[in-house]
From TrEMBL:
<dbReference type="GO" id="GO:0000156">
    <property type="term" value="F:phosphorelay response regulator activity"/>
</dbReference>
<protein>
    <submittedName>
        <fullName>DNA-binding response regulator</fullName>
    </submittedName>
</protein>
<dbReference type="InterPro" id="IPR001867">
    <property type="entry name" value="OmpR/PhoB-type_DNA-bd"/>
</dbReference>
<dbReference type="InterPro" id="IPR011006">
    <property type="entry name" value="CheY-like_superfamily"/>
</dbReference>
<keyword id="KW-0805">Transcription regulation</keyword>
<dbReference type="InterPro" id="IPR001789">
    <property type="entry name" value="Sig_transdc_resp-reg_receiver"/>
</dbReference>
<dbReference type="InterPro" id="IPR036388">
    <property type="entry name" value="WH-like_DNA-bd_sf"/>
</dbReference>
<dbReference type="GO" id="GO:0032993">
    <property type="term" value="C:protein-DNA complex"/>
</dbReference>
<keyword id="KW-0238">DNA-binding</keyword>
<dbReference type="GO" id="GO:0006355">
    <property type="term" value="P:regulation of DNA-templated transcription"/>
</dbReference>
<dbReference type="Pfam" id="PF00072">
    <property type="entry name" value="Response_reg"/>
</dbReference>
<feature type="DNA-binding region" description="OmpR/PhoB-type">
    <location>
        <begin position="122"/>
        <end position="217"/>
    </location>
</feature>
<keyword id="KW-0804">Transcription</keyword>
<feature type="modified residue" description="4-aspartylphosphate">
    <location>
        <position position="52"/>
    </location>
</feature>
<keyword id="KW-0597">Phosphoprotein</keyword>
<dbReference type="Pfam" id="PF00486">
    <property type="entry name" value="Trans_reg_C"/>
</dbReference>
<feature type="domain" description="Response regulatory">
    <location>
        <begin position="3"/>
        <end position="115"/>
    </location>
</feature>
Amino acid sequence: MAKILIVDDERAINDLIAVNLKMVGHEYIQLYSGDQISHVLQESKIDLVILDVMLPGKDGFEVIKEVLKRNVPVIYLTARDSLADKVHGLEIGAEDYIAKPFEAVELIARIHVALRRNQRDNNEFTLDHTVVDLDKHTVTVQGQIVEMTNKEFQLLELLIQNKNIALSREKIVERIWGYDFYGDTRTVDVHIQKLRKKLDWDNQIKTVYKYGYRLEVQV
């Protein structure tokens, strides 16, 4: 997975991002101002920077110049959510601009999009005897191809990208079927059961009581 630099002076937010990155298998480095960014970029191979705009000293709009010199993608994460700030952030080179407060699921999804766009993420996932190639949309179990519908694969990809994070049924419906879906959350249960059967993942895909599901993986 990727090594991600978190730069945010709000320690609670910084720690929350770090916890979620660790849960899905990414490495991370935490900074609380922009002063040490150049040093970290020189000493470590960083795949992505999550950068607050309002930092002590130089703000995120200034700091990004040093990051982009090293061809490292940036996602802004900030309370400054005006349209003018978003447009400015994207125009000066950021991959994405996420306003606080944010949902962990959305942040992780946008991180993976940015990593893929810059080809800095490993898009093959292995668990026990199952190998999932997220780029080729193929699944094998003990070397044998497993046929999946588009929705089944999308659900599997969502679970993988958010491994060890509990996803509510409502969030799964929103991400896979969209806001205008007229069915109910039992659709999620049916698709989860199909994945468990096809992949023999009864113990890996955990039911979170009265909430949803979590793909449990040792990282």
